[in-house]
Queue: 2 jobs
Job 1
Amino acid sequence: MSLALRERLIFEYSRPGRGARGQWPEAPARSALDALPDGLRRQRRPLLPEVSELDALRHYTRLSQLNFSIDTHFYPLGSCTMKYNPRACNAAALMPEFLGRHPLAPVAQGQGFLACMYELQEMLKAVTGMRGVALSPLAGAHGEFAGVAMIRAYHRARDDLERDEIIVPQAAHGTNPATATMCGCVAREVAVGADGDADLEALRAAVGPKTAGIMLTNPSTLGVFERRIEEVARIVHQAGGLLYYDGANLNAILGKVRPGDMGFDVIHMNLHKTFSTPHGGGGPGAGAVGVSARLLPFLPLPIVAREPAAERGAEAPQYRWLGERDLPQSIGRLTSFGGNAGVLLRAYVYMRMLGREGMRRVAEYATLNANYLSARLQQVGFEAAYPQRRASHEFIITLKRAEQDYGVTAMDVAKRLLDLGFHAPTTYFPMLISECLLIEPTETESKQTLDAFVNAMAQILREAREDPEQLHGAPHTLPVRRLDDVRAARELNLVYREPAT
Amino acid sequence: MSKIPEDLKYTRSHEWLKSMPDGSIEIGISDHAQEALGDLVFVELPEVGRSLAAGETCAVVESVKAASDIYAPVAATVIAINAQLAEAPELINQDPYGRGWIMRLKPTAQGDDSALLSAHDYQVLAAEA
């Protein structure tokens, strides 16, 4: 990382007429534009930067060097599972045979790819305990949308038309109530008890003939395992609702406990988190969904099927896409084709490399690292939000006391961590806990890295006591200092204008 | 210590209520709430004339840290909104009980206000949070 380097905007390198002309697209023939109505034609040239190929290359390379990334820094961003992305997954997904496959090519010519997708579906079913899996949703929130749409379709198919309430615990990810609303439901919040588990009395009072379902993540966003999950499942099922599992925290239980066994009817899996494909600015996601038997008919399309050998003619391909004729009650298609193929391939290779044994170790080391880090941070003087509970793959530190005693906030600590070479944990989420940091170390970090993080945090706590100004002003060593995020939000301005000369 | 005027009523979700001479009520969020949220950057207001059930979400206040729903403390109709907040959400930070008022409501019936808190009870609640 190049410290204290400031990179200019690419517009500031611009000189009239400069460019890599050899790479410009050919101008369309005049006649091709004739069909465009005059009113829709541009009158002036767009304001684009005019730079050489080398200028552009240097600019973006420098920007990439100013970044914090999983390849350069420890990245304990809670709820995001920023683990190492093995290079082998990348290498397999970049094979020219995969890259060159056209999504509209006949299935007979894509049997290798389809075989990978079929096996990925099967492995995801096995590790989550669900009965069917569809891979097409492109991200976590997209998977949530598919999941709640299936819950609605299920109730509608039974003529149970009054069920439009989705229950979400107070600590839910913000996408849960947003998804419920997007699917035409009403989100209904239930309280969380003092120990971090759901308040069962509040849940019993909330369910009824209008309950479509409940959206839960387990372990919850509070970093603790919902211990009475089977009781929760019973209450919701008895009321006629279904259970939705938000897979954001699947890393904690991989190979150990299966959402299907806990009683969940539908789950989305963030393959980019749990199954380690680059994300968070490093790449797109994949939000595969899994369902219990009663939701099988409603899965989104397409899905890969393997035809039993006896039903095949000599030349017929073994794998094919299922479509509307196979699954007439499907909620439909959420993407043009089969999903983010490159992401799915990387997740597939990752799972094949882990195997059944490896998956269990992911959960074991993810929780071991989180519990070690939590214990060490408490040793050096930080306050855990739930000290009586064992951490899952992540845990919450609250800086409420530091805020009262020294006027130092969670944001001050987060910004100071950047100076010390660490990506900050998630701040101010979940909102139930004031001045909180949500810390997720993941299983791929060594004890030495975790210890270095503890040392940095201990130094920050010392500075909070002795020199709080040091923290209020952080970061001190980065090209971009503390941003005025209030002004940025109140006076939103995203348009570059050439300075008057 | 945040200000909690004696002459107002409060809710557990940190709204304040002021009874107006014409029988309507004015609502906003408490000094404690604006402090906890931090600098506000956006306020979403309901349409005048909308009728609200008790406990229904009727507005949203958003800071750089969080977005928070405002709930109708009683069943009511919206009769006025503080349109200035659209341009100047910071009024709530600067003067939560005055120029930072959010809306005026006309209760639809002689409502049950037993769930509302006195200034003293709200002080206890705010101290716990």
Job 2
Amino acid sequence: MQILPPVSIGTNRLLPRSWDLLAGILIMGAVVLFADASRELVQPLASLSRSPISLEPSQLPEYAFRTALRMLVAMAFSLVFTFTYATWAAKSTRAGAVLVPLLDILQSVPILGFISVTVVFFLSLAPGRILGAELAAVFAIFTSQAWNMAFSFYQSLRTVPIELTEAARMFRLSAWARFWRVEAPFALPPLVWNMMMSMSGGWFFVVAAEAISVGHTTVVLPGIGSYIAAAIAAKSLAAIGWAILAMLVVILIFDQLLFRPLVAWADRFRIDAEPSDEESASWVLRMFRRSKLLDALGTPFDKLMRWTWRFALPGRGPRLERAPSRIGGLVWYAVLVAVGAYAAWRISAFVDASLGFAEVLRAFLRGLATLARVIVLIALASLIWTPVGIYVGLRPHLSRVVQPVAQFLAAFPANLVFPVVVSLIVARELNPDIWLSPLMVLGTQWYILFNVIAGASALPRELRDAGRNLQVKGWLWWRKVGLPAVLPYYVTGAITASGGSWNAAIVAEVASWGHRTLHAYGLGAYIADATSQGDFPKIVLGIVVMSFFVVVVNRLFWRPLYWYAERKFRLA
Amino acid sequence: MDALLDIHDVRRSFPRPGGDDLLVLDGVDLSLHEGEIVGILGRSGSGKSTLLRLIAGLASPQHGTLSYMGKPIEGPARGIAMVFQSFALFPWLTVLENVQLGLEALALPDKEIRTRALAAIDLIGLDGYESAYPRELSGGMRQRVGFARALVVNPNILLMDEPFSALDVLTAENLRTDLIELWSQHKLPIKGIVLVTHNIEEAVQMCDRALLFSTNPGRVTTEIKIDLPHPRERSDPRFEDYVDRIYVEMTARRIERARPVQTAGYIPEGPLTPVSANAISGLIEAVAAPPYNGAADLPDIAGDLQLEIDELFPIAEVLQMLRLCDMEGGDIKLTPTGKRFADADNNERKEIFARALTSYLPIVAHIRRVLDERASHTAPRRRFVDELEDKMTEDAADETLRAIISWARFAELFSYDDESETFSLENPT
């Protein structure tokens, strides 16, 4: 499967447009709305840990199953969101103008921040019952999965080859049939890739979302995340070892039973006529394809779909292009302006009531500290993994082994390993400002490694031979051949790694072992502390400042770098 | 006899960022009768594909009427099917599923869908490939699927948009003869064909009438009736006569269009085609060399150089614009400057070319002047793009600049840095 760039650099536009501003205001308004609602729910909700988490390893399969189930439910919601939201954005120019910047900004909002502001709200939906907490966890996972899937689907819908659309229209397929026969299949391979990336990122957040305290509200949902939290409180390294093992097994099962078959199956929908260089194989897919039972189960569904294709929506048959109505446009923009104004009003009321300029400055300075950490750590990870990745990628027998391991490590939720490191820091009395930092890239550095490996293996044989033929060796080789060849891939990996590190800061800059809690100076710790104190104005401020940093770094640094690398170094 | 298709006074334009519209088709009349193959011949950009999309109901004209069997065309009509240049097969559907697609939309019973699809596959010679995916097939086989898919809905009119141009010569010939054979034996369900092509021989081989299209805006300039029985032989002298006649017609029009390049101001009237300096030198050398010795018959030299008309004309047009050759009555003739160019060594060639560029292509002289006048001797690309976009679309302006940059580089008039998007006088030292 070829590696796709992160969807966040889909455009090479740098300067924000007014639509971006509106999107920012709308999202901030939504966050404020949630936080406000939560602040007013004053009564401390009963703690939901009815059945306390047991550290018995025999309980782990059940916990792991629950965790996996949450992931699947969130994935189902994400797919529904993708098919509706992205389709609407792609089909309607008017809606797209605001929906796309919304997605773009949403991608930059720290996911753990979503949990902090929404968990109380969800709990209040089903007071005293476990359902609300489950909803909050699923929503948090959803926010880690949905945006990039929707973005990828949107980008695919906008790039369906014109001849395919025309052919479908010539045969008078209805819009509904066109969606399922032309557009959705065309969008499938990138969507599957992004689902895989989403899942891989999602494990981190499901672990974090299962055991969380917002002020007086404590949520403990049975699952691997809560198990880890209990193990930390009990200072049990053995239990943490068991949890890591259970997670390994779960990720392996997902890989074998879900994603390998999906990727192999999606291969058929690739538009480039060239057969893929490495045949994606999956024993599960083979089994499905040979099984008569599944055929029998699928046929009625298939028939039903075919049957629905025969009906065009009334009055929406094949039609010629027409100018959009002016009145509709006016109404639409009026609604947008009204909603934007309402959001702005809520935000200003919220800020007035609770935050001074000094607080904003404090959050901003902490943001700079976290930024410095991200920069240093990504640079360090790049220095280490780029040469390693190139070395591995040029040796097929080696990359066959290392590549899946790197991809697996990227999916593995690094927060499971945090306690091991934190226990060391506590035992050795190390400086948390320095030694907590590596936790931020613990899980995300692998994106750099596997992207660089992919880039190096894609270097054409002839180019390598030409280099050897011209006696290009040593530093000259790295400068003129190795590094330029992998640059587009490296940037792709580094963007994902840096985005992930910002998110990880919220759980990495504050860490506990038993009764000891370590704090590093940074925006992540700021958000985490505000969350545990239930201080909603500070949570919102932290989220907004972090989103701001992520958006700015993306626009000013990663996007230009990506497009530069893409133009200059991409091997056609 | 009533016409299958009647097109009257059709105009179609596309909006441009600058404000005024780009006229692609203007005052086009066309009719198709039962049992007829009509060919539309013209250069790319002459709007012939746009016309085909209007007939297919995929777009609508700003002015004029299109009617199919007496009824106006509003949206894709049942009974008009199209074959696409790039095949437009759905890569995730098998051959059989691709062919069935159009029938499924007609809401026919499953059994009938299957029998009819299999019959079409049989007719077009795809037996045994039913379960293959398009990517497993060669280009020729893929286009056969395209034909089967179009024919299976039993259309009255078949529209073909350069259906053979993505295929190699041998495969294209094979597919053409098969198709003509089926057509003349009345085995195809269709009553009439509209074929868009830029290949003159293809038009003479297949069509009963050929309509020649002009560029900017596209309109029908000449209609040539081709009165030969099928199968037509290329070696037949009458076949060659028709090919020559079309060449003469097409070059005659080119002259009146290519002459008034020097307009008021320095912005060229139409977009320039990026033709490589190698191709320019190559054509001059070929015309200068025996057996042509300075003057050649266009069909002859096209065949000799294995160039299609669509590839030869842009090169010849640039030569004519730069006064390195003349085109008249289907012939190409070197001017004295052209002859000097042919005899010169590489450095002299660059000089001759540079002089020709600055004399006959005012935009080049303009860019050079701007660079000379500025203290930094650099200018951003944006500046010239903006000037060009007053007269042409964004894409056309982009292409025109690419052409200018490539010629200026050959002539060493100025250089261009793609990363910073700036023109400059300096050459890297």
